[in-house]
Amino acid sequence: MASRLSIAREQTYAMENGTIAEDIKIEQAKLARTDLLILQFLIWWFSPPAILKGWFGRGFAYHTGRKYDTGMFKGKFAMVAATTGTSEDTYAPDEIDGSILAVLWPAHNGLFRYSGFDVLSPFVAYMPGRQDETGRALQLNSYRQRLETLESTPKLFFHPAEDYCPNERLKPYVIARRPRMSDHEGRKMGNGYFRTDSGSSASSTFMPVCICSVSTRASILVPSSSLISASITGTSSVKDGWLGR
């Protein structure tokens, strides 16, 4: 058994002994000093693009026992800002592509929550590639408003550790809850926001903000801001005060 390769064991050893590759150390340092991580990407085959998933796999490292409520990033916040190629209707819970929150579950729970982040409700711009200039302007304005009101953005609900048995299944008397988008709070608002039934929100001022994005023509633009003092980016260009992704 000792001679078998264990990726998890090798990763832990590298973290504990400082043998992580230098370029990965740089990315991990950015995560360590940020208060808020924003992952911005287009939804590609129902997930982030491969280049961003590669960043997840190389940049995040698991420490034994440090997950969920005791995760490495406890006390920090994270949010997805995504664009889609199809309409908002197709990502409703009763529509063909399924709930947008189900599509984003691997990022929300498997990456953010697992590593300790509090997860803010995502911002989604639907079908920007098929919008006219007026529609794109509305999406950009909605995203600007979201970035300006992050402190009041609701958090997604996740069960705390005390709701689970030792086998990590919910205790029999605990009613299962999952992040959800209601008609009133989501689809009928028509502005790219969706809220949850958690009733809570972020209350701190975020500084610095770490944005990890993937360059694509399908994405909307990201406003340049003094909050963005630590930026993890793919390729980007600056034009008229905006970062083009």
Automatic annotation (TrEMBL):
Transmembrane regions: none
Keyword annotations: Oxidoreductase
Annotated Flavodoxin-like fold domain residues: 15-147
Keyword Oxidoreductase belongs to the record: yes
GO CC terms, sorted: cytosol
MF (Gene Ontology): NAD(P)H dehydrogenase (quinone) activity
Pfam families xref list: Flavodoxin_2
Family recorded in the similarity comment: Belongs to the NAD(P)H dehydrogenase (quinone) family.
Name of this protein: NAD(P)H dehydrogenase (Quinone)
Species: Paralcaligenes ureilyticus
